[in-house]
UniProtKB/TrEMBL annotation:
One of its GO terms (molecular function) is structural constituent of cytoskeleton. It comes from Coprinellus disseminatus (Fairy ink cap fungus). One of its GO terms (biological process) is microtubule-based process. GO terms for cellular component: microtubule. This is Beta-tubulin.
Length: 87
């Protein structure tokens, strides 16, 4: 974590909202907490954090990648994940 991390996150929100279809905000501290408490890792590395994020993103996009009754598309995924659309 760096001192400028909150500034980077805050200043990038406008560009992300305007130029991306979907954006997932991930809290590094929450990832560390999951690594410590749930995965019982004493010193998690960035590789561990990236692996955790990759598992989450894989789970989120499963309905897009595999056939089945619960298939969806990116539009439906975005609509169902946003409780209040941009006004």
């Amino acid at each position: 974590d760096t001192v400028v991390e909150p500034y980077n996150a805050t200043l990038s929100v406008h560009q992300l909202v305007e130029n991306s279809d979907e954006t997932f905000c991930i809290d590094n501290e929450a990832l560390y907490d999951i690594c410590f408490r749930t995965l019982k890792l004493s010193t998690p590395t960035y590789g561990d954090l990236n692996h955790l994020v990759s598992i989450v993103m894989s789970g989120i996009t499963t309905c897009l990648r595999f056939p089945g009754q619960l298939n969806s598309d990116l539009r439906k995924l975005a609509v169902n994940m946003v409780p209040f659309p941009r006004l």
